[in-house]
Write a structure and sequence with these properties.
Layout (H helix, E strand, L loop, with lengths): L17 H8 L3 E2 L1 H9 L4 H9 L4 E2 L1 H9 L28 E4 L14 H20 L7 E2 L11 E13 L5 E6 L4 E6 L4 H4 L9 E9 L2 E8 L17 E5 L11 H11 L6 H4 L2 E7 L21 H13 L6 E5 L24 E3 L4 E5 L2 E5 L5 H7 L8 H11 L27 E4 L5 E6 L2 E6 L7 H6 L7 E6 L4 E6 L4
Parallel strand pairs: 1-2, 4-5, 7-9, 10-11, 11-12, 12-13, 15-16, 16-18
Antiparallel strand pairs: 3-14, 5-6, 5-8, 6-7, 8-9, 10-19, 14-15, 17-18, 19-20
Helix pairs in contact: 1-3
Length: 497
């Protein structure tokens, strides 16, 4: 019997047996275990016929077991991607133009050893870079450090510091403990001030500008200012007419992966389904994390997996990427389900995992596409920011994304999310992005704020048992597409009937 070549992890090989050849010619992709079982065992002809009549992108050994044991439950049939003969995509007529901003990506640069010195250097770097943004904000008051406050007694000044504690006083005011590089101070937000009205949005580890006066051992604050982004910013557009597709949370390998909707998406890209004109403009696709469902991400995950080998999950991803037209550039960052370290910042996925022609970047990363500055971040910190601040919810992820932008930091609450204390804090938003793309929460959302487009690209995974228990309502198979020349954002729903 012939051997499956090592480089062909999913059996895209020259079949010898007529039945296997028929499967191959139908563009059905067998996993190695399914191929080996069919090759080495005598299988009834009706089983082959049922394989040829089923639906789905892939056919696994688990699906074969279902056919052999309970033939009334038939997995789904792989549908060949149809390429419209008359499809003439505009995006095919020009070369891609993008660049990766290396200083924003941890890939190949991690030097953290976990020592106390690493934490000190990390927080100092965060403070210096975020406070520099605040120092550029216009203020009618001079800036003082915690060490200089005593010498400013009675004068109005601005104090830039990091919040380390927040509590209510007996008189109903808010008392903060703050620190800078020179020391610490107690800041009071009196009930009658604007600062008090905003106190519900103040998070631990926030770096904020406090305007007020020093009185004995307390700094009495009347206004607070976050780093923010400038007011006078227009939405940036491009001269060239092309489109960018935003994806995240595909979760290949999950039983809840939506094969049919993803197949429709691939068909649309190839001009055989839906809006052909818009599909023909697509030049770039950005995948913002959770390419696969992973292994051991949460207890008893195995029962939710249809493919339990991490390498085979990425092979499924690669096969899907191969069906995307070759003139489209695909850029992919990892998420918390991917096979890189769980703590952020995360390096790019290795070549041993993603072997298709995909541009691999870290999480977070900055990518400039035809002049549009993209900040890519999977969005794990949304799980800490949403419950920590009143008024936020998983139903509107763009509002939580806005709070991260206003703080100029992607994961401001240290300790709630896994963060590696690298000497440089890669989660600081140093430059104003034109587009911030996140995923993680499986919920579409978007907002244009001071010229920056914030968008969450949803998922291609159906609602999970965990989401049901938590009351989350995902928006699967809804794909955002940005037309770069006009700034128009469209959403296409590939769920079908």
């Amino acid at each position: 019997m012939p051997q499956v070549p090592n480089e062909a992890k999913i059996a895209d090989v020259e079949f010898v047996l007529a039945d296997l050849k028929a499967i191959y010619e139908k563009n059905i992709r067998l996993t190695p275990e399914a191929f080996e079982f069919l090759e080495k065992n005598e299988i009834d002809q009706d089983v082959y016929e049922k394989i040829l009549a089923t639906e789905g992108l892939f056919f696994t050994k688990e699906m074969l077991d279902v056919l052999l044991s309970r033939q009334d439950k038939i997995p789904t049939r792989p549908v060949t991607v149809a390429r419209a003969l008359a499809f003439r995509p505009e995006a095919k007529e020009f070369s891609p133009s993008f660049k990766l901003i290396g200083r924003s990506d941890i890939t190949g640069k991690s030097n953290c050893t976990g020592k106390i010195e690493d934490f000190v250097a990390h927080f100092r770097n965060r403070f210096e870079r975020v406070s520099a943004i605040l120092r550029r904000r216009i203020s009618e008051h001079g800036i003082a450090t915690t060490k200089q406050l005593k010498s400013t007694q009675g004068s109005k000044v601005r104090l830039i510091a990091m919040v380390t504690d927040k509590r209510a006083t007996k008189k109903g005011n808010v008392l903060l403990t703050v620190e800078d590089c020179e020391g610490s101070a107690k800041v009071v937000l009196p009930r009658e001030t604007e600062a008090y009205k905003l106190s519900g949005k103040i998070l631990n580890d926030d770096i904020i500008a406090f305007d007020g006066k020093n009185a004995d051992e307390l700094f009495i604050c009347d206004t607070v200012t976050w780093p923010e982004i400038p007011f006078a910013r227009e939405q940036k557009k491009t001269e060239r007419d092309f489109a960018i597709v935003y994806l995240s949370d595909l979760h290949f390998g999950s039983r809840k992966f939506l094969e049919k909707p993803f197949q429709r998406f691939l068909n649309w890209l190839n001009g055989s389904e839906g809006n052909e004109e818009l599909a023909g403009k697509v030049k770039y696709i950005i995948v913002c994390g959770d390419l696969v469902d992973g292994i051991g991400i949460y207890p008893e995950q195995e029962k939710d997996l249809i493919v339990k080998d991490i390498y085979k999950q990425y092979e499924m991803f690669d096969l899907a990427m191969e069906k995307i037209p070759d003139y489209i550039t695909v850029i992919a960052a990892p998420g918390n389900h991917d096979a890189v370290r769980r703590a952020e910042p995360q390096p790019a996925l290795g070549e041993d995992l993603v072997k298709s022609n995909v541009v691999r970047v870290g999480n977070p990363s900055n990518v400039e596409i035809e002049g549009l500055k993209h900040l890519l971040y999977h969005g794990t910190s949304l799980d800490s920011v949403i419950p920590a601040m009143g008024g936020l919810s998983y139903e509107k992820p763009e509002e939580a994304m806005l709070e991260l932008l206003r703080r100029r930091h992607l994961s401001p609450i240290y300790g709630d999310s896994l963060i590696v204390p690298e000497e440089r804090d890669y989660l600081v938003i140093e430059e104003e992005p034109d587009i911030i793309h996140m995923g993680h929460v499986h919920k579409n959302g978007y907002m244009l704020y001071r010229g920056t487009l914030l968008l969450n690209s949803g998922t291609f995974q159906d609602r999970t048992d965990f989401q049901v228990r938590m009351g989350h309502h995902p928006t699967p198979a809804i794909v955002p597409i940005l037309e770069a020349k006009t700034g128009k954002l469209s959403h296409i729903n590939f769920m079908g009937e």
